[in-house]
Amino acid sequence: MRLHYFQHEPFESPYIIEEWAFRNSIALSSTHFYKEAALPNLNEIDWLVIMGGSMSVNDEEKYSWLSKEKEFIKQAIDCDKVVIGICLGAQMIANVLGSKIYPNSEKEIGWFPIEWKNEILSLNLFKHLSKELTVMHWHGETFDLPKGAIHLAESKACKNQAFMFNEKVIALQFHMEFNEKAIDEMLTNCGSDLLSGTYVQSKEEILAGNFHLENIQSSLINILDALL
């Protein structure tokens, strides 16, 4: 079992996913696009995990590697690999599946609940989830649901929070992989995003919500275990 992850920022690593991989003796490799590292051989990986980032999937003129990354993601999906996208990664998956990425009506930053769709809670991947889960959001853009995708979750601020495609591709607009270090890194590196908004929390509110971490981590691990 070989898991490769794409990282776009020095401070947005896989965190809990990496810990889970080590516990399950899964071989890890990575491409760090902020270092302009090379893409892997698709035949030498089983899973692809795409992390978040401050850039937009539409910023191809600014980030020369974006088009190559999108092409690789599409190839991984076409080759029936397990592909998981988080935040920017979810938007990348939506984009390569033909959906537009555009500004959401509200920025969503902080701890806010999502609601899983009733029809997916009986599926093996998601049967352990409760109807509502408070997760960490940090995004200003959203996507249309790709053709053929199954809608997984929504929030008050953003309708399309997650989807599944062909049972092996999962896109999560929110963060379930975070730990306390991840929260601190986001506040340090992206604190300027915390402008006034209906769905934008203050630094103090975000830190006060860290008790949600254990719940989101265990929920993600259950999903990963079911995929494995």
Polypeptide structure, described:
The protein is an alpha/beta fold and 228 residues long. It has one domain (2-227): Class I glutamine amidotransferase (GATase) domain (Rossmann fold, 3-Layer(aba) Sandwich), CATH 3.40.50.880. The protein is 27% helix and 27% strand. The chain is built from 6 helices and 9 strands. A 9-stranded mixed β-sheet has the order 2-1-3-4-9-8-7-5-6, with helices on both faces. Helix 2 packs across helix 3. The longest helix has 15 residues, at 213-227. The protein is globular, with a radius of gyration of 16 Å.
Topology, pairings included?
Blueprint: E1 2-7, H1 16-23, E2 27-32, E3 47-50, H2 66-78, E4 82-86, H3 88-96, E5 101-116, E6 132-143, E7 150-154, E8 162-165, E9 169-172, H4 180-190, H5 203-208, H6 213-227
Parallel strand pairs: 1-2, 1-3, 3-4, 4-9
Antiparallel strand pairs: 5-6, 5-7, 7-8, 8-9
**CATH homologous superfamily (4th level) name:** Class I glutamine amidotransferase (GATase) domain
CATH topology term: Rossmann fold
- The share of residues in extended strands comes to 25-35%
Uncertain runs with pLDDT below 50, 5 residues or more?
A: none
**CATH architectural grouping:** 3-Layer(aba) Sandwich
**Alpha carbon gap, first and last residue:** 9 Å
What's the alpha carbon Rg, rounded to whole Å? 16 Å
Q: How many discrete structural domains?
A: 1
Question: What's the short version?
Answer:
With 228 residues, the chain is an alpha/beta fold.
Question: Any key phrases for this structure?
Answer:
single chain; 228 residues; alpha/beta; Rossmann fold; nine-stranded mixed sheet
